[in-house]
Write a structure and sequence with these properties.
This protein is mainly alpha-helical. Among the domains are: 62 residues, DNAb Helicase, Chain A (Orthogonal Bundle); 82 residues, Rossmann fold, CATH 3.40.50. It contains 8 helices and 5 strands. Helix 1 packs across helix 2. The protein is globular, with a radius of gyration of 21 Å.
Length: 206
């Protein structure tokens, strides 16, 4: 890291925690983001101690392995939530169909021609957008498979309020999580699940 290339700033903590998370996320996804962040940031620029640790770990790993400034080099992050990458690739995402095809009218028409039923023409809501809709009282039923919004999204108080306002919540997971225990507006249903090693038959890693 070179101190002479850092921008001159007079920031007063707390900084934007969401922006810190965005920077770290970009560093894990794109190699150029690692090089740029390493040039202009230092660990002490991050407000949260855990963010400083993550930043240092990413930079140190890249430097130790000589992955900066070399062609075809970089980081390949392993997803923190099992199946996220595979789920996205097979279309379990609100804004894309299998193979990364965007959700739009053209794609919906192709689905109709190929499979004989009309596909979605407009993308669905991302996780944060769903919680915003729940907080506004616009979601009647929320089916949550895996994950824990209370621990993975900023502002747990806001997340809890959003979950409390949904009339019917269905949770399906391997273990009991804190978000399952949030009081619902009316009903909460908890369903069991099995992991890949407990499934009958074969399954791909994703």
């Amino acid at each position: 890291m070179t101190a002479d290339r850092r921008p001159s700033t007079d920031r007063i903590p707390p900084q934007s925690v969401e922006m810190e998370q965005a920077v770290l996320g970009a560093m894990l996804i794109e190699r150029p983001a690692i090089e740029k962040a390493a040039d202009i940031l230092r660990p002490e620029d991050f407000y949260r101690p855990e963010h400083r640790t993550i930043f240092e770990a990413i930079v140190n790993l890249v430097l130790a392995r000589g992955m900066v400034g070399r062609e075809h080099c970089g980081l390949m992050p392993i997803r923190g939530h099992s199946g996220v990458q595979g789920g996205a690739e097979v279309g379990c995402a609100p804004n894309q169909l299998p193979g990364g095809v965007p959700v739009d009218a053209t794609s919906a028409g192709r689905i109709g021609e190929t499979w004989g039923f009309e596909g979605p023409a407009e993308p669905g809501l991302q996780a944060v957008e769903m919680l915003d809709a729940a907080h506004d009282g616009d979601i009647d039923m929320f089916y949550i498979a895996g994950g824990n919004f209370l621990e993975t999204l900023p502002d747990p108080h806001y997340v809890r309020e959003a979950l409390e306002r949904v009339p019917l919540r269905v949770h399906q997971d391997l273990v009991v999580t804190h978000q399952m225990l949030v009081e619902p507006a009316d009903t909460v249903i908890i369903l069991p699940a099995v992991n890949r090693y407990e499934q009958e038959g074969g399954a791909s890693p994703e």
